[in-house]
């Protein structure tokens, strides 16, 4: 793997990256109330008295949110802390009705774990381990809306109290590509586990990007934090811009200020938002309204038993079945694709053949029609039927493409289309021999040239035979019978 270096005026620089990912927990309600969490609702229609911090309202933890965070921790091989506690993080802002956020600073639910990532798509076997420091559970704040009135800002509390997992990496990443691979892998695992939908465009997964630079071998430099970046591509752009900006500042004789910055996706640049607070600025203390969380073995065992086969394990299983490492990576990247492909294998398809067909024919058709695999008009069972008709010689490759196009348009099964349209491949040697005889009789010049040593014309005779038979002749039988006829 090539090391990522930035060439400055004073030599080479290394970038040091850590990510804090806020992932919205998939659950039936908010972290401490029964209010709904559906995306796109009208402002302030999903707000309970707890979320609005009405006097006398007490938080009650949502067990499903805790369960999902524990399952996520298990999926990244992290330490699950049987005893954890909620803290109050005090700050004052218009979208935070309580005047504090309930979070977990001192005793998080999940401790250290890791992800193994592949930054180079062309070499999926070259992996790097990224440490994860912790996962803590916290409530989200509301949202200020500045575009509703020329002189006022409005507050929407629909997100107030929504459950978040904050997944904090160690500063182990050294390039935009590694950060992109880490986020991609983390998003994939969250979606496999079902603990977060990973919809970054809807704000249910976003990243705070910590970046510093240093000369090789030096101590870590001062870092900046770029807040709430909501796409993997934007995270990579923010890292590249911020690293180059910091190098320019340092080489220009300036110093890096520890601060919070914002990313502008239109320009690909970051700008200063505020100086970075330290933990003591928030005056953390244990939340007096909430008892510590104590997890028993039965709860942990239920969480562990509920985990699905995860991307790495699935990829290794596919590779063991004869699928290439690259295809296995593509097929396991998104949980919907992996589930569709597993259903195809369960319906009897041969792994390597199925992988080739999905990667080329199915993905090509879905891209062409603007569909995802979740709304594919062809089901795994129908695809398995099509591949079986190719395997048993009923369909040639070209006929299979024709049948697949009809399947896409009509939703019919392959067998029904073959019968209805008479598309069955023929291996009738008598019929094929008769057509070959006609082709040779119609092309005496080419026949003479072939028998005179121009063997490249063999393909011409195959094409003419297949054309005469409407593409329905078995190519293997055609080749065999042509060789005999041409030799005579």
Automatic annotation (TrEMBL):
Q: State which Enzyme Commission number(s) the record gives.
A: 6.3.5.-
Write down the InterPro entries for this protein, in alphabetical order.
Asn/Gln-tRNA_amidoTrfase_suB/E, Asn/Gln-tRNA_Trfase_suB/E_cat, Asn/Gln_amidotransferase, Asn/Gln_tRNA_amidoTrase-B-like, GatB, GatB_C_1, GatB_Yqey_C_2, Gln-tRNA_amidoTrfase_suB_CS
Q: Which Pfam families match?
A: GatB_N, GatB_Yqey
- Tell me where in this chain the Asn/Gln amidotransferase domain is found: 339-486
Can you state which reaction this protein catalyses?
A: L-aspartyl-tRNA(Asn) + L-glutamine + ATP + H2O = L-asparaginyl-tRNA(Asn) + L-glutamate + ADP + phosphate + 2 H(+); L-glutamyl-tRNA(Gln) + L-glutamine + ATP + H2O = L-glutaminyl-tRNA(Gln) + L-glutamate + ADP + phosphate + H(+)
Q: Which UniProt keywords apply?
A: ATP-binding, Ligase, Nucleotide-binding, Protein biosynthesis, Transferase
The answer, when asked if Flavoprotein is one of the entry's keywords, is: no
SMART domains reported for this sequence: GatB_Yqey
Question: Alphabetically, which GO biological process terms does the record hold?
Answer: glutaminyl-tRNAGln biosynthesis via transamidation; translation
So where does this one cross the membrane? none
Give the GO molecular function terms.
asparaginyl-tRNA synthase (glutamine-hydrolyzing) activity; ATP binding; glutaminyl-tRNA synthase (glutamine-hydrolyzing) activity; transferase activity
Q: Which family does it belong to?
A: Belongs to the GatB/GatE family. GatB subfamily.
Q: What does this protein do?
A: Allows the formation of correctly charged Asn-tRNA(Asn) or Gln-tRNA(Gln) through the transamidation of misacylated Asp-tRNA(Asn) or Glu-tRNA(Gln) in organisms which lack either or both of asparaginyl-tRNA or glutaminyl-tRNA synthetases. The reaction takes place in the presence of glutamine and ATP through an activated phospho-Asp-tRNA(Asn) or phospho-Glu-tRNA(Gln).
Subunit structure, as described in the record = Heterotrimer of A, B and C subunits.
Q: What is this protein called?
A: Aspartyl/glutamyl-tRNA(Asn/Gln) amidotransferase subunit B
Which organism's genome codes for this protein?
A: Sphingomonas aracearum
Its gene name is: gatB
